């Protein structure tokens, strides 16, 4: 029996990849070491626009975080959130990046799971503290389920309408 090669050449992959296979998408969680200023700016902008902020703490190594981030890109969810919420995706690395945000929202010293999804009001308060880790199994969901879950939370975060 021949040993498997340690690294598969790219030419082999291109030649043998089934046509229905989509290329791996680019990073869903930007490589930013300190996302706190981005969050503060998003909260300020959202407050001025009367919107909520959806903060997704995740990483590209996690299939559930990638799935959830992909749902946020779906047309159905984009339409549901338009003018109601802003989304900020933050890379937590291997639990070694942006840990200041984990502590800022009282999530302990380390996240219990990825992704952690926080719906924030204009003051930066967490609207969904009991189910921040709801989407640790996002691969088994779909954009409609995410929209149904997010919609009432976003309404709560936005507060009563004038």
From TrEMBL:
Domain Thioredoxin per the UniProt entry, residue ranges: 18-155
Gene3D superfamilies linked to this entry: Glutaredoxin
PROSITE patterns: THIOREDOXIN_2
Pfam families referenced in this protein's UniProt entry, alphabetically: Thioredoxin_7
Name listed for the protein in its UniProt record: Thioredoxin family protein
Taxonomic source organism: Marinicauda algicola
Source lineage: Bacteria, Pseudomonadati, Pseudomonadota, Alphaproteobacteria, Maricaulales
């Amino acid at each position: 029996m021949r040993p498997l090669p340690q690294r598969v050449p790219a030419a082999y992959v291109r030649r043998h990849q089934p046509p229905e296979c989509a290329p791996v998408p680019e990073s869903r969680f930007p490589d930013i070491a300190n996302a706190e200023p981005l969050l503060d700016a998003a909260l300020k902008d959202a407050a001025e626009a009367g919107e909520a902020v959806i903060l997704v703490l995740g990483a590209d190594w996690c299939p559930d975080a990638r799935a959830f981030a992909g749902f946020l890109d779906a047309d159905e969810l984009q339409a549901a959130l338009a003018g109601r919420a802003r989304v900020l995706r933050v890379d937590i690395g291997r639990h070694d990046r942006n840990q200041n945000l984990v502590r800022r929202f009282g999530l302990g010293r380390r996240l219990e799971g990825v992704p952690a999804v926080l719906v924030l009001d204009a003051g930066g308060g967490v609207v969904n503290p009991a189910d921040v880790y709801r989407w640790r199994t996002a691969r088994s969901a779909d954009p409609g389920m995410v929209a149904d879950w997010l919609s009432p939370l976003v309404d709560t975060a936005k507060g009563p309408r004038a």
